[in-house]
Amino acid sequence: MKTLIKNGTLITASDTFTADILIEDERIARIGLNLEADSDHLVDATGKLILPGGVDPHVHLDLPMFDTVSSDDHYTGHKAAAFGGTTTAMDFVVLESTPSGRGQGEGDFQYSVGLWMKKAEKAAIDYSFHMNLTRFDDQIAKTIPSLMDMGIQTLKVFTAYNRRLRLDDGGIFKALQIARDNGMLVMAHCENGDVIETLTTQALSEGRTSPIWHALTRPAWGVVEASLRMAAMAEQANAPVYIVHMNAGGEVDMLQYARERGVKVMGETCPQYLFFTIDHLQRPDGAKWICSPPMRTEQDNARIWEGLTRGTLQTVGTDHCPFFYNGTKPIVYEGSEIVIPGKELGRDDFTKIPNGLPGIQDRMPILWTYGVNAGYITPNQFVAYTSTNPAKIFGLYPRKGALVPGADADVVIWDPNKQVKYGMAHSHQRTDYNLYEGWDLMGYPEKVFLRGKLIVDGAEWKGKRGDGKFLKRNQGEIL
Ligand code: URP
Ligand code: ZN
Ligand code: ZN
């Protein structure tokens, strides 16, 4: 099967040029001017941009949390991703114990990955996994390298969520050493778990239960301190580290400080930290904005933009982890009524509001209008942050994140002139709200190809369950 895309303007992380693209089966076969081929499909992309499919390095699909589960699974979340121009998504495996008991090391990893593979059988775009490293002992330490055989080269550690997900600094340091010795990468959620625990206990004992207290009990200084601590530990272990969901201006300062001193630290931010502030949590529907780490201030938004403009940050992911705002009222998704408990679980106690928000579809269209069109980043930086850099860092490049012969034909035809009043009417995220409701967009994906197959054609969904492939990843690059 051959598809020839004619006369588009290709945007890569480094170049912008006009060319034709010939796709043969699942791969890009040729790129050049005036290509002639006996193609099955001819697409005229005059006036359109051609981008590599987006790579979202940070999503949480079908993730159990509190008394519910994130409301997008590996089909609905992937479908939404595709409508936003993303063709690869990476989510996080919860580290479980084998039914026979704890401390089985490799057994636990294999068992946990197996559970996630099962969930992902319905995948609609390509995907891979990171492993949440939420406990650490000698057996776990010994078997971490076995994850590489499963194509998983990333471990996520947490400096917060005491007694649930957090490792102590000793465990994190040893994980960094193991990662260094095996070509793996540690990803870090940076907040101060002890400060959060203390402030939360105090707030609840004073009867402070509204959503704003989620943010007030997770101060920005905690992430500033924890991300510098993480960078410092990485330097002492001579290992790379990738800090997820950077949300505070001071955190970007720390990233810059460490990178200027040669520390192998990389940073990811997410759209919500560019546009929203703690004030959103004061609204009557403030629970919609609850995620961890929380929203900060306009000064923080501005400093994170500056980090993208200057290239201090490396990626823009989403941390897509949606919950219904009102999980007692069904929505209709693909013709069926769906209802999943959501933010209402914490109506009387902010600590019971499931943490997370939707964004997998929103990321690229929102960042294009309010990042590229607004002049904060160039189109090439847009491609770098949303596709090429995550592909490089996470060992998928040039199969993903690249418009070159031999790469997977994950191709987005982007209409830079398409005007959209964004929100629920366009969103395929399986939840009952969109954070960007009513935002005016200029520039939107028109056609999306996954390994040569057209899966989004305007408003039409042509993908299907099971189309997505698990990607075994190699050692990534340090950017
Ligand atoms: O609130 C969030 N971000 N939920 C997902 C889990 C995490 O810490 O990334
Ligand atoms: Zn996190
Ligand atoms: Zn996350």
Reported CATH architecture of the largest domain: Alpha-Beta Barrel
CATH topology of the largest domain, what is it called?
TIM Barrel
**For this structure, what is the CATH class of the largest domain?**
Alpha Beta
Straight-line N-to-C gap? 36 Å
Model description:
- The protein is of the alpha/beta class.
- The chain has two domains: 2-51 and 400-461, Urease, subunit C, domain 1, CATH 2.30.40; 54-393, Metal-dependent hydrolases (TIM Barrel, Alpha-Beta Barrel).
- It has 13 helices and 21 strands.
- The chain has helices spanning 76-83, 106-119, 138-143, 146-149, 169-182, 193-205, 212-216, 220-237, 249-260, 272-275, 298-310, 363-373, 379-393, and strands at 2-11, 16-24, 27-32, 41-44, 49-52, 54-59, 64-65, 68-69, 86-93, 126-132, 154-158, 185-189, 241-246, 265-269, 315-316, 331-333, 336-338, 411-421, 440-450, 453-457, 460-461.
- The strands form four sheets. Strands 1, 2, 3, 4, 5, 18, 19, 20 and 21 form a nine-stranded mixed β-sheet that branches. The protein has an eight-stranded parallel β-sheet with strand order 6-9-10-11-12-13-14-15.
- Strand 20 and strand 21 (460-461) form a beta hairpin.
- Helix 9 packs parallel to helix 11 (298-310).
- The structure holds N-(aminocarbonyl)-beta-alanine and zinc ion (ZN) (2 copies).
- N-(aminocarbonyl)-beta-alanine binds at residues 60, 189, 291-292, 319, 321, 355-356.
- Residues 60, 189, 291-292, 319, 321, 355-356 line the site of N-(aminocarbonyl)-beta-alanine (URP).
